[in-house]
Amino acid sequence: MATATINGAEIAYDDTGGDGPPVILAHGFLPTDDLVSTVAGLIVGDPALSVEWIAKWKARPQESLRQPGATLLTRDSVWDRLGEITAPALVVHGTSDASIPLDHAERLVAGLPHAVPLVAVEGGTHAANLTHPEEVNAAMVPFLADLRG
Which pLDDT tens digit goes with each residue over 13-33? Predict the structure, then answer.
């Protein structure tokens, strides 16, 4: 983990040199408009939809974002323990996800012993459930119905 100061704000980021780009997360300050727009672009993608989510994020008390941020920055990798997960799994991944590459989703499905085939949502972003709810729901409804038996 490393930190940098950008626009007067201390930013924590993962610099471990993993497969993807560095993970950057604002932590401990009220984010600037530029930073919030960048994060929204990574997560939501669609500028029109991003406006709505930026307003929601900025309206939240700053303290309510601290724990989720810390969790993202300090979580342990579970890649080597995927085989221990015995629950049925559905992995839905947007093909336009700017945050996590599609091959990570493929690797996740391959490592989970009870995963159904990957659902790649064409044009979906990191938040494919927001940008492509019909496609995501079309995958989730039968998966959940199968769990009920």
Answer: 555 544 444 444 444 444 567
Backbone angles phi, psi at 108, to 5 degrees: -60, -50
Contact 96, 124 (CB under 8 A): yes
The answer to pTM > 0.90 is: no
Nearest to 9 by CA among 27, 23, 21: 27
- pLDDT band, residue 2 (cuts 50/70/90): low
Torsion of CA 64, 67, 73, 78, to 10 degrees: -130
- CA 94 – CA 98 distance, rounded (Å): 9
CA atoms in the 13 A half-sphere facing the CB of 114: 9
Cα 103 to Cα 132: distance, rounded to the nearest angstrom: 20
Give the integer Cα–Cα distance in Å for 90 and 88: 7
